[in-house]
Amino acid sequence: MEKGNQYESVLIVEEKHTAKAFGSGDLYVFSTPMMVALMENAAMKSAELGGYATVGTSLNVKHIAATPMGHKVRAIAELIEIEGKKLVFRVTAFDEKEKIGEGVHERFIIDVEKFMKKVGMKTRTL
């Protein structure tokens, strides 16, 4: 893994991806929560590591243009910084006509077994 690595996630906007379906708006246009998920997916895929995983910890994005149902959307994550276990990505999203979103996303590299053990401790303390 090195700076400059990129990954692209793509989908065709269906009703289930719309703001109306997500409850984040009243319109049948590509939702901000789905754009964020697509951006995170691209970053996660860009940082796949054997035996380890990454978790999202910070996301600062702008959703700058609407996309109608039936259009293709792609999110691109580019690794721009590595600081120990912290990975920083520039994320952008485009539909067939224009850029629809942009921002910065941080992920941390985790040991899956240790992470899940810690999560499991929460259920035992309730």
Automatic annotation (TrEMBL):
It comes from the Bacteria. Pfam families: FlK. InterPro entries: FlK, FlK-like_dom, HotDog_dom_sf. Residues 13-112 form the Fluoroacetyl-CoA-specific thioesterase-like domain. SUPFAM superfamilies: Thioesterase/thiol ester dehydrase-isomerase. Signal peptide: none annotated. Gene3D superfamilies: Hotdog Thioesterase (3.10.129.10). This is Thioesterase. It comes from Fusibacter tunisiensis.
